[in-house]
Amino acid sequence: MPALISSAARSGAFVMLLATLMFSLNDTMGKWLVASYSVGQVVLIRSVAALIVLAPFLMKTGWRPLFALERPGLQVARVVASTAEIFLFYAALQFLPLADVMTYLLAAPIYVAAVSPLVLGEKVGWRRWSAILVGFIGVVIALDPSGQALGLPALICVIGSMCFAFMMVTARSLRGTPDTVLVFWQIVGAALVGILWVPFDWAPVASVGDLALLGLLGIVAMLAHVLVNRAMKLADAATVAPLQYALLFWAVLFGYLFFGDVPRASIVVGAVLIMASGTYIVLREQQLKRRAAQAATQV
To answer: In the predicted model, is pLDDT for residue 1 greater than 60?
Structure first.
């Protein structure tokens, strides 16, 4: 049995690393495309492609769960946050290197840990509060408040990461909602805003290659989400969640190869602190859960 568990853990780690590669490819294509097309146009075509990929899964499970929603108000708030996060993310990519944007985005788990005592009633001890503080220091260093890098694009990233954190928190509160339902309404929300956007800022697609990239955005993103879900089923969160920080490696590599971006020293230092903080928070949460489970079995 230990060998089987070890094998599953290795498989989960591999699948999560593949997911980070898919997300990074999606982000790289998005940065390339928003240089020529509006954010609304990119998001709309991306959403349509994602819905096409998602449709077979919805047909298999049926359409009724899409409208039998638990806590509808919270569902709407989550869709608003997810839509804002997508638009803010692509807007930031117009002005900042991939590594910068991903550094700010990956601070989301730190925000989740900080607000979970208030929103979810979860107990956070001094160790995790210390890790949260280190993570916030990392964000401040990455922002470079000396004035050289701090500006509207960086603040857009921070707001976007907070929207992403809100999505993570609400996902914990909506455990009874199937993943396909959550993803469907996220895509629909982004598509609706894209439809409202494009009449005011639409550029003719210049080539078949650009059209293919626009479609691939949605397909690759959907594949990445599927891989993340699969990784979480193959291995526990403590094993696979810290591997999400591989996104920063790919962001630095692709940013350099495709856009000639070289990360600032403040981004590198801030990213290291954010990764250390986020990894510790995940590992500590899993350790406490195991202790609670062991105590429950001994009662």
So the answer is: no
The 10s digit of each residue's pLDDT in 250-288 is 999 999 999 998 888 888 888 888 888 888 887 777 777
Distances from the Cα of 87 to the Cα of 40, 157, 191, angstroms: 8, 10, 11
Identify the burial level of 74 via C-beta atoms within 10 angstroms of its C-beta, where 0-12 means exposed, 13-18 middle and 19 or more buried.
middle
Tokens encoding 49? 């492609």
d(CA 245, CA 281) in angstroms, rounded, equals: 13
Angle at the Cα of 218 from the Cα atoms of 56 and 270, rounded to 5 degrees: 135
Cα–Cα dist 103/265, whole Å: 13
> DSSP states of 26-70 as a string?
HHHHHHHHTTTS-HHHHHHHHHHHHHHHHHHHHHHH-SGGGTS-S
Q: Are 131 and 116 in contact (CB under 8 A)?
A: no
The 10 Å CB-count burial string (b at 16+, else e) for 209-241 is ebeebbbbbbbbbbbbbbbbebbbebbeebbbb
CA 188 to mean position of chain CA atoms: 17
What is the token pair recorded at 178? Answer: 């199937």
Please give the torsion angle defined by the CA atoms of residues 224, 163, 83 and 53, in that order, rounded to the nearest 10 degrees. 10
